[in-house]
Design a protein that fits this description.
This protein is an alpha+beta fold. The protein is built from eleven helices and six strands. It is elongated, with a radius of gyration of 29 Å.
């Protein structure tokens, strides 16, 4: 994209040099909004600088042909126009990226807790397979006593408890791990390039974190979690739904003695 915009400005340079007409100079300014198509701050700044440089070149070297009636004092308005247009385009790109980020949040995040949703989980799983990681681990977490908390304190407290739980879990995870809320009080953690000892250590830390009392609206809530997991080093043949089912079954084997 840098090469494309650079070539456009070189084209206008040679065009003005060989055929110095005002209409071609004015047409040159269309290259600046064109640079915003790529939504790159650096590219727009480069385009703005190039436009101003061509303006100075046109004024001082082609003044008779292009600016016969423009005084030196008026040159500042052309420069200001370039600065204003560049600033406007930078603001426009910022707003577009901000809107895109919000759309991504809606598409990939659970609105209540901010954890990933199933769609992002599927995309991350596919990405891990494409990268051909050495192993994939999936933890299935079900909170114990969540229904009792909802019935006792109400759904608002229950929602706060879920959000607090996600916050605690995120503190334990690395950047390569993904925390996903499947629904209700069920969560999945997707991890890669780990061995069995790493998984067991993570499960212990998660259980310790979940068992710590949580203070919400002047109420101390005590919950815990049942955790099952599935693991594979055969990444090319790994299937997300099968791993979720396997981890879910393992979780129920852990949970059953608690019932």
């Amino acid at each position: 994209m840098y090469t494309t915009i650079g070539c456009i400005y070189l084209y206008f340079y040679y065009l003005l040099k060989n055929n110095p007409f005002l209409v071609k100079y004015l047409f040159m300014w269309l290259a600046l909004p064109l640079s915003a198509i790529y939504q790159s701050y650096q590219l727009v700044v480069m385009g703005g600088i190039a436009s101003i440089i061509l303006t100075f070149y046109s004024y001082f070297y082609l003044r008779t042909e292009i600016f016969p009636n423009v005084s030196t004092e008026d040159l500042v308005y052309f420069v200001m126009f370039g600065i204003f247009t560049t600033t406007f385009l930078l603001t426009f790109i910022f707003k577009i990226k901000e809107a895109n980020n919000k759309l991504k949040q809606l598409a990939y995040k659970d609105p209540l807790t901010g954890a990933a949703n199933r769609l992002l989980l599927k995309e991350r799983f596919s990405l891990l397979k494409e990268k051909k990681v050495q192993s994939i681990a999936l933890l299935f977490i079900d909170m114990n006593g969540f229904k009792r908390t909802n019935d006792t304190y109400g759904h608002e407290v229950g929602d706060q408890l879920l959000a607090k739980t996600v916050s605690r879990l995120n503190e334990l995870l690395s950047n390569k791990d993904l925390l996903c809320r499947l629904g209700g009080d069920e969560f999945v953690i997707l991890s890669s390039n780990v061995d069995m000892s790493n998984v067991e250590n993570l499960i212990e830390r998660i259980q310790d974190a979940l068992e710590e009392p949580i203070l919400l609206t002047e109420q101390t809530i005590k919950v815990s979690g049942s955790i099952g997991w599935s693991y594979t080093a055969d990444v090319p043949d790994a299937n997300l739904e099968n791993m979720i089912k396997e981890a879910d079954k393992a979780m129920y084997r852990v949970k059953r003695p608690r019932m």
